[in-house]
Amino acid sequence: MKRIINCTINKETYELAIEPNQTLADLLRNDLGLTGTKKGCDTGDCGACTVILNGDAVNSCLVLAVQANNATIETIEGLSTEDGLHPLQEAFVEHGAIQCGFCSPGVIMSAKNLLDKNSNPNDQEIREGISGNLCRCTGYQKIFEAISSQCSDK
């Protein structure tokens, strides 16, 4: 039996009828068409599905959609505006941190969450901030450089 939840996703309010066993990743991708949230491992190991839920980066494949009732959610689609890409997204492009693009949304959301909480993280904090995100293309150095370029002391 479906349950009704209310939530705010990328600053838009939704009332949604969902199955009790539906994940937040599936809700975002299949019901709302927000396909920037990728489904990689579906076990919380790769971080491709990372979104910001009530101010914390989470693996949306491990969160039931019912847990998002009355929550605020940010996805990669919510970062850009009419004026263009978010500065963090631009930094990823400028630093060559985007290769195939599969992991990029999750990494960017983890990085945004880190920078929202700490505008000037040190090198170790940046590494820890994205430690839950796997990338097979870039070798992480370009990702690290892109995030580091957005620190407040740069």
- Counting helices, strands and paired strands, the structural category is alpha+beta
CATH fourth-tier homologous superfamily of the largest domain: Beta-grasp domain
CATH overall fold name of the largest domain: Ubiquitin-like (UB roll)
Q: Taking all residues together, what is the mean pLDDT? A: 96
**How can the largest sheet be summarized?**
5 strands, mixed
**Arrangement of strands in the largest sheet:** 2-1-5-3-4
CATH domain class name of the largest domain = Alpha Beta
Q: How many structurally independent domains?
A: 2
Shape: globular
User: Beta-strand percentage?
Assistant: 15-25%
Tally of extended strands? 5
Gap from first CA to last CA = 52 Å
Features:
single chain, 154 residues, alpha+beta, Ubiquitin-like (UB roll), DNA polymerase, domain 1, 2 domains, 5-stranded mixed beta sheet, 29% helix, 17% strand
